Amino acid sequence: MGLIKRISRSRAVQESLGLLVASYLKLVQRTNRFVMEPADAYDRIGPQMPVIAAMWHGQHFMIHFAKRPQDPAASLVSRSGDGEFNAIALRHLGVRAIRGSGARGRDIRKKGGVQAMRAMMRALADGEMVVMTADIPKIARVCGEGIVTLAQVSGRPIVPVAVVTSRRMDFNNWDKASIGLPFGRGAIVLGEPIHVPRDADAETLESARQTVERELDAVHERAYALIGSRDPGAKARNTPSTALARGSRA
């Protein structure tokens, strides 16, 4: 490992980076004028807490803006070096990190997926909202089976969430990430809760997976429309999502 990488992964540097990211996101939240849709989202979803908040990868930087202060929350964060300062930033934002991620074509145990699933189930059982990306690893905006499996075994509903701002930086990377800039307008859109029966068979799970994917696309499309913009990460894939999701099974 090179000197720069060793320095960047030192605890002191990552603590500083995490605090810097959290402070910046707080500035974005304070200086943007947000509208929420539906206006009574908290009244409708609050009684169903804790829920599983679903987001697209790359749209995760501002997702905590949708959380009420009184709702304890935990978020799935990868075990990578970058994930460490993300976890630190989340701590400063009042969100507990659960370390681990899914795997595509690799041993899921090495990525901490099994332990993470158990930790998320415990969090939900203890009354914590769980926030997680729905995408298959490294395939943007194609919902995998992980989030619907969590909903099935926990009995908690999935709520699709989008948080966007009119002033932002859009990155030309695999997940078309966006991060807000201060002094603009913002939109927070929450979809209807999606319930997955505990006794769901393979066909029902696939239907739920497709519903999560479709509704996440819909809330993002609506959020960008509310700020008069176009979603830079809108679907741009050549392979049907169903085939991709099925092909990702370990």
TrEMBL record:
Q: Does the keyword Transferase apply?
A: yes
InterPro entries given in the database record: DUF374
Question: Per its record, what are the GO molecular function terms?
Answer: acyltransferase activity
Domain DUF374 positions: 68-139
* SUPFAM superfamilies per the UniProt record, alphabetical: Glycerol-3-phosphate (1)-acyltransferase
Keywords associated with the record: Acyltransferase, Transferase
Question: What residue spans carry the region label Disordered?
Answer: 230-250
Question: What's the superkingdom here?
Answer: Bacteria
Which one Pfam family would you cite for this protein?
DUF374
Q: What is this protein called?
A: Lysophospholipid acyltransferase family protein
Species, as recorded: Microvirga terricola
**Upper classification of the organism:** Bacteria, Pseudomonadati, Pseudomonadota, Alphaproteobacteria, Hyphomicrobiales
